[in-house]
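ok so for the tutorial part 2 we go from a plain amino acid sequence to predicted structure tokens. step 1 is just haveing the sequence, like this:
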Amino acid sequence: MKKQDCFLFGTIFKLHGYKGDVNIYNDNDIPLIFTDIDFFYIEENKELIPYFADSVRPKKKKILLVKFEDVDSEEIALKILKRKVYLPNKFLPKIEDINPDKLIVGFDVIDKTLGKVGIVDFVNEKTAQKLIIVKDGEKEFFIPFHDNFVTNINLEKKVLEIDVPQEIIDIN
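step 2 — the prediction. this is what the tokens look like for a chain of 172 residues:
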């Protein structure tokens, strides 16, 4: 499976018990129907490897408790700890069912005149004006999350299209 056919769901952040169960943190707070999920892709050496799930259940608001087939000990579970977890795009809910602020993290940011200016690193909702934090290597800048600047969110291509003056990028 290719990454462009999947979306980043979360991270295996903690073991649960000693029989191989793991906790997956739903990084982007994406609502899913867990009974439909038979497998997850776990990133190993920049490749997505399918891991079939024996059981999947919500533990807390953004945490899933998952028991994978063939992961039946703490030792095996430690090998997948801290790994990124992906799901096929078919599990993506309709855009009206999700908060796009969270989903755009990791998207390429393409400006109308400047081209690619970076990748969405974070969306800060705790300021008076929601801000998109964009990283381009070591450089970081902020774009107001507003219709005047954000022209399109393409979920399939994982692209955030913007139209901002050069000054906004340079001011940061």
